[in-house]
Write a structure and sequence with these properties.
The protein is of the alpha/beta class. An eight-stranded mixed beta sheet has the order 3-2-1-4-5-6-7-8, sandwiched between helices. A six-stranded mixed beta sheet has the order 12-11-13-14-15-16, with helices on both faces. It is elongated and about 85 Å long.
Length: 504
């Protein structure tokens, strides 16, 4: 399906308007229909206004604008859509409403027309089951704002014909977006892969490992996420996100990896949805997010002695940091020395006990992502205030940002990234999407700095596996059990991007 088509978009809301704009700009004739009188006409004018901004900014000329504008039409009745090649619904996220619409469309369109749903959370097969020809029904899930979010999920339901998947993939690619193909599973691909950031951020808060602003800060500055989990929840709206979290958990038969947090329902009940209500995990003044002030940097005590565990990943870099600060490096723990450890997947208290160290003088520094970026300092439950302040002063003396957190297996970055990688590995293991589609969907749809399996390779698959195993041992929580995809590739020394032999 490479020729220019006649496309119908049913639903004149935000998503529908974006889809109209995308395909009109790609050269297709687009008809917009909405059951509310006048809504389609308003949508067409809105889209024309959005495209007109391109003329104002010099991106397109006036003649091109008129050509695009001439390809967009408001349909007065559903019968006006009879000769459309592809019909995309973008109506309310309600199963019965979508099923009723598709039944009505089948009575109007040709047997060859493709019916696609922009659903973000419903099972496409359940929508298709209402149709006489379910083989021509698929999911086509875009992200808001549609023209700017350069990815769309093509969801193949169990009875969707392969030719329909190919046609929709080509249609999306022809509009300049990346089409990723996903199986008809809860959350499809992008929302499924995004569970790790949300759920693990909430776990950290449940355990009082760190505050909301600390978790977001560390994941932005140390891990490179554009936004932390609580900023994202406030942006999307906790009323919406809570339903998605619960839905995916239930649809995956209460899979522990997707377990929602008990912290969420009380906030939803209180109406603390986020930006749109002026308060969520953060308070807002206009669009400005209110965050606590940065605590002052403590003074480095004179004559500080510092011992670093021999097994610490960054022992040499820590030695240079100690010497640059003017502290004294010691090869053996002394009764007054600050004791530094660097566990992978474990916590500071557990590491102190395992090494026979005085927990009142012990702290841990996350080896991820390295000392050159924002650092995370973790305390044991018994770390003395003087040692806490000395470690803070030492680790921040060179101006690199630092966050001090309570004891937490895997710090913040380790446990979140290990969870993200593990969920992506299980998506690949279940054949929900190909490795390349997983990688691109996460980068384009979630804005992560790199694909999750590539991220796992960068950390080291063996290290990711070690983090998960130790976290599972410390917490006893099956959410951290490693995916077979991860375990097998680590056992063979292969990249986590290595496809199954039978799929190559």
């Amino acid at each position: 399906m490479t020729d220019k088509l006649k496309i119908a978009v049913i639903g004149a809301g935000t998503m529908g308007r974006g889809i109209v704009q995308l395909f009109a700009q790609a050269g297709h004739r687009v008809h917009c229909f909405d059951s509310f009188e006048g809504a389609a006409g308003k949508a067409v004018e809105f889209v024309a206004g959005m495209i007109g901004r391109g003329v104002e900014k010099g991106r397109i000329d006036a003649e091109e604008f008129e050509r695009i504008r001439g390809r967009i039409h408001a349909a007065a009745t559903m019968q006006d859509l009879a000769d459309c090649d592809v019909l995309i619904e973008a109506i309310v996220e309600d199963l019965e409403a979508k099923r009723a619409l598709f039944r009505s469309l089948e009575a109007v369109v040709s047997p060859q027309a493709i019916l696609a749903s922009n659903t973000s959370s419903l099972v496409v097969a359940e929508i298709a089951a209402a149709c006489v020809h379910p083989q021509r029904v698929a999911g086509l899930h875009f992200f808001n704002p549609v023209p700017l979010m350069k990815v769309a999920e093509v969801i193949a339901a169990v009875r969707t014909a392969p030719a329909v998947v190919t046609a929709l993939r080509d249609l999306v690619a022809g509009a300049g977006h990346r089409a990723v193909v996903a199986a008809d599973q809860p959350g499809f691909l992008v929302n499924h892969a995004g569970r790790g950031l949300y759920t693990e951020g909430l776990r950290l808060l449940e355990e009082q490992s760190a505050s909301v602003d600390q978790i977001d800060l560390v994941l932005r500055e140390a891990a490179g996420f554009r936004m932390g989990p609580f900023e994202l929840l406030d942006l999307t709206g906790l009323d919406v996100s809570s339903k998605v979290m619960s839905s995916i958990y239930e649809q995956f038969q209460q899979e522990p990896r997707f377990r929602p947090s008990s912290l969420v329902p009380p906030r939803v009940a209180a109406g603390l949805f986020g930006r749109k209500t002026g308060q969520g995990w953060y308070a807002y003044e206009g669009d400005a997010r209110q965050v606590p002030p940065t605590p002052p940097l403590p003074a480095l005590p004179a004559g500080l002695e510092v011992w670093v565990a021999p097994q610490a990943t960054e022992r040499n870099a820590l030695k240079a940091l100690v010497e640059a600060a003017g502290a004294r490096w010691v090869e053996r723990p002394t009764p007054e020395a600050l004791l530094i450890v660097q566990p992978w997947g474990g916590d500071a208290t557990g590491e102190a006990v395992a090494l026979g160290l005085d927990a009142t003088r012990c702290v841990a520094i996350d080896p991820l992502p390295g000392l050159g970026r924002h650092r995370t300092l973790m305390l044991t439950v018994a770390t003395a205030p003087a040692m806490r302040d000395a470690a803070h002063a030492l680790c921040a003396h060179d101006g690199v940002g630092l966050t001090v957190i309570n004891d937490s297996p895997g710090f913040i970055v380790q446990r979140v990234l290990a969870t993200v990688v593990n969920i992506a590995a299980q998506i690949a293991q279940r054949g929900i999407a190909s490795v390349d589609d997983i990688e691109d969907a996460v980068k384009l749809g979630l804005g992560y700095p790199q694909g999750p399996l590539s991220w796992g390779d960068r950390i080291g698959g063996a290290q990711v596996l070690a983090i998960l195993r130790r976290m599972q041992a410390v917490t006893g929580d099956p959410r951290y059990r490693p995916s077979p995809w991860l375990e097998r590739r680590v056992a063979l020394g292969l990249s986590l991007r290595t496809a199954e032999a039978a799929r190559r």
